[in-house]
């Protein structure tokens, strides 16, 4: 009898076990849904669908992780205020014709 109860519990909690095995970010919420509404077949199916959904990927260009390298001071650009600006061509790589 204990084996049947244990087997039932394993099958009942399968959506949560599956989510934990996939390192799903919402595994604890899936467990909560499974425990509270899993006894209804609809709640159990919803937990399975949520556990099978791919977790959101981090956005590229988002906040970077903190570096472990020591922080260096920022570089400052020092310009000579008396110097004339260098002429630039309107099209890069082409010289102006005179």
Instruction: Specify Rg, calculated over alpha carbons.
Output: 30 Å
Helicity, as a percent range: 40-55%
> Which regions are unreliable across 5 or more consecutive residues at pLDDT < 50?
none
Regarding quaternary structure, how should these chains be classified?
single chain
Termini separation: 99 Å
Count the E strands: 0
Number of helices: 4
Strand fraction equals under 5%
One letter per element, helices H and strands E, the order comes to HHHH
Main sheet makeup: none
How does this model look, in words?
The protein has a domain at 15-52. The termini are far apart. Helix 2 packs antiparallel against helix 3 (27-37), helix 2 (14-21) packs parallel to helix 4 (41-52) and helix 3 (27-37) packs antiparallel against helix 4 (41-52). The chain has helices spanning 2-12, 14-21, 27-37, 41-52. The mean pLDDT is 79. The chain has 98 residues and is mainly α. It is built from four helices and no strands.
Tell me the layout of helices and strands.
Layout: H1 2-12, H2 14-21, H3 27-37, H4 41-52
Helix pairs in contact: 2-3, 2-4, 3-4
Structure characteristics:
single chain; 98 residues; rod-shaped
Short recap of the structure:
This protein has helices at 2-12, 14-21, 27-37, 41-52. It is an all-alpha fold and 98 residues long. The chain has a domain at 15-52.
